[in-house]
């Protein structure tokens, strides 16, 4: 079962969407659209009758509402009134990611099937050291039991990611997406890259995206994926190479062919050659 991101064009690059009960990290420097991404993610769930929890370090309920309204998502007001969307601003000085108040708030709005957002995770872990890896691991473990989570992570403008506060969430997250604003102007100004997507196929490469009024983030990658899908006939390939393939391996290769990901034929040939 996949969780639709709500970001146009992205799900097909993720093999159908996010995996349920996982933690996704959106890495990006300031102004790349991290907050808009998280709102789109929540709106998609709310539209489908799911609940949402929004933890912010920058905005209170009104701020979140204003941002959503500025993008034309009037429904968000009803969701807050109906208490299907819970928004709370925390102050970084008073809270750590192990804080009970934070976890209780997240739990109060989650039913195991909810969408949870922490925007951003950076204030919670700014003084993180490598010894605290286990604590973050525990925190993510707990989040997975409560629903499907998207956290944002601030990428320093210097591009130096070699800090425990960045590397630990990246290593422990299930899916990592990077948003970049290169500033080259239109076509490749903003780009998205899938750094990892545990337990799933995902598209490789960078994909341009736009932020559009009333819509939010739109990723332009779908055509690219369609073109690159390959049809491979496994039986004729095996015949051609004259090898004997054990039944369980055959099943796996067949599955690869059905997925039709670019590069499948070359990969299968390599595997078949190793059987000779
Ligand atoms: N209504 C809109 N229409 C088009 N683009 C918009 C609209 N609102 C915001 N944007 C674009 O989105 C950017 C801000 O997106 P967002 O607030 O999600 O970024 P962020 O990564 O969360 O940044 P921050 O570091 O401030 O948290 C703006 O700089 C602008 O380019
Ligand atoms: Mg933001």
Please explain how this structure is put together:
The chain folds into 2 domains: 2-227, Rossmann fold; 230-273. The mean pLDDT is 89. The strands form 2 sheets. A 9-stranded mixed sheet has the order 5-4-6-7-3-8-9-10-11, with helices on both faces. Strands 1-2 form a two-stranded antiparallel ribbon. It has helices at 34-47, 61-70, 75-81, 100-108, 122-125, 133-146, 164-172, 222-228, 234-241, 247-259, 264-273; strands at residues 2-3, 18-19, 23-28, 52-56, 85-89, 114-119, 147-154, 175-181, 190-197, 206-212, 216-219. It is α/β, with parallel strands linked by helices and 276 residues long. The longest helix is centred in the first third of the chain and has 14 residues, at 34-47. The protein is built from 11 helices and 11 strands. Magnesium ion binds at residues 34-35, 119.
Radius of gyration: 21 Å
CATH topology of the largest domain: the name is Rossmann fold
Named once each, the bound ligands are: adenosine-5'-triphosphate, magnesium ion
Task: Output the CATH homologous superfamily of the largest domain.
Answer: P-loop containing nucleotide triphosphate hydrolases
| Total domain modules | 2
Q: CATH class of the largest domain, please?
A: Alpha Beta
Structural class by SSE content: alpha/beta
Mean pLDDT across all amino acids: 89
Mind summarizing the main beta sheet?
9 strands, mixed
> First CA to last CA: what distance?
38 Å
What portion of residues belong to β-strands? 15-25%
Sum up the overall morphology in one term: globular
**Range of helix content:** 25-40%
Can you name the CATH architecture of the largest domain? Answer: 3-Layer(aba) Sandwich
**Low-pLDDT segments:** none
Give the oligomeric state of the chains in this entry, treating copies of one chain as homo and distinct chains as hetero: single chain
- For the biggest β-sheet, the strand order reads 5-4-6-7-3-8-9-10-11
Number of strands: 11
Give the helices and strands as they follow along the chain: EEEHEHHEHEHHEHEEEEHHHH
Number of helices: 11
């Amino acid at each position: 079962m996949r969780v639709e991101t709500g970001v146009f064009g992205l799900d097909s690059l993720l093999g159908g969407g996010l995996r349920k009960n996982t933690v996704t990290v959106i890495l990006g420097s300031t102004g790349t659209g991290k907050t808009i991404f998280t709102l789109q993610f929540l709106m998609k769930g709310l539209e489908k009758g799911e609940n949402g929890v929004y933890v912010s370090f920058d905005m209170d309920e009104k701020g979140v509402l204003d941002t959503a309204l500025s993008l034309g998502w009037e429904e968000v007001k009803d969701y807050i009134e109906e208490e299907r969307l819970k928004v709370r601003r925390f102050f970084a000085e008073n809270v750590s990611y192990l804080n009970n108040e934070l976890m209780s708030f997240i739990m109060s709005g989650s039913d195991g099937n909810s969408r949870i957002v922490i925007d951003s995770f950076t204030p919670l872990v700014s003084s993180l050291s490598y010894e605290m890896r286990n604590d973050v691991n525990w925190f993510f473990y707990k989040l997975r039991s409560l629903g499907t989570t998207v956290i944002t992570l601030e990428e320093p403008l210097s591009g130096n990611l070699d800090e425990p506060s960045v590397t630990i969430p990246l290593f422990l997250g299930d899916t990592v997406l990077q948003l970049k604003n290169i500033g080259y102007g239109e076509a490749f100004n903003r780009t998205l890259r899938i750094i990892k997507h545990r337990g799933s196929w995902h598209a490789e490469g960078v994909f341009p995206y736009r932020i559009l009024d009333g819509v939010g983030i739109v990723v332009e990658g779908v055509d690219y994926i369609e073109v690159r899908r390959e049809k491979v006939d496994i039986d004729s390939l095996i015949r051609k190479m004259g090898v004997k393939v054990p039944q369980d391996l055959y099943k796996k290769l067949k599955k690869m062919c059905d997925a039709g990901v670019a590069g499948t034929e070359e990969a299968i040939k390599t595997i078949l050659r190793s059987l000779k």
